[in-house]
Specification:
single chain, alpha/beta, Rossmann fold, 6-stranded mixed beta sheet, two-stranded antiparallel ribbon, 27% helix
Length: 162
């Protein structure tokens, strides 16, 4: 399907987000992640810093899991930087790694619709060995996601409830 189909779905889904108290979904995200075998085993967590129109889980999850090494996307390229230091980049290693992936919506097959830049698809394609989880609120679970040849499915979909 075309980029036009994706943009149309982004517009439709954006309307679902309006007026929602997304912080009410945070406890569900944290409970599901903290009981997830991949999260429990992971030493390195590659996470995104949620925008104001995404579930605000990051700070609380990180504070209750300080034994893990936390990395966030760099704004200066396609890599992740350690949260404590902008100079300590994540590099593939023997550490067990989990990547938490944002989305506007997703389906149960693991296909997601992001903001349209393709950053995570390129990253997941490069490092396909790691476990990936997309986090979405229950109202953003859809049946069909328009797909293009470069789209990469995540391995797990976390559907948060309020």
């Amino acid at each position: 399907m075309s980029t036009e189909s994706k943009n149309k779905l982004r517009e439709e889904v954006q309307l679902l987000y309006k007026g929602r108290a997304l912080s009410t979904y945070t406890p569900s995200v944290i409970a599901q992640l903290e009981s997830n075998e991949h999260f429990l085993c992971a030493q390195d967590i590659l996470a995104y810093l949620p925008f104001s129109d995404e579930i605000p889980f990051f700070d609380e999850l990180r504070q209750t899991n300080l034994e893990k090494r936390w990395f966030v996307p760099s704004t200066k390229g396609y890599f992740f930087t350690k949260i404590e230091s902008q100079e300590n980049h994540w590099v593939p290693s023997s550490n067990l790694t989990l990547i938490l992936v944002p989305a506007r919506c997703a389906n149960l097959e693991g296909y997601r619709l992001g903001r349209g830049g393709g950053w995570y698809d390129r990253f997941l394609q490069k490092y396909e060995i790691m476990h990936s989880i997309v986090i979405i609120p229950d109202f953003a679970l859809v049946v069909k996601i328009p797909r293009e040849s470069h789209d990469i499915a995540v391995k797990q979909v976390l559907v948060a409830t309020s």
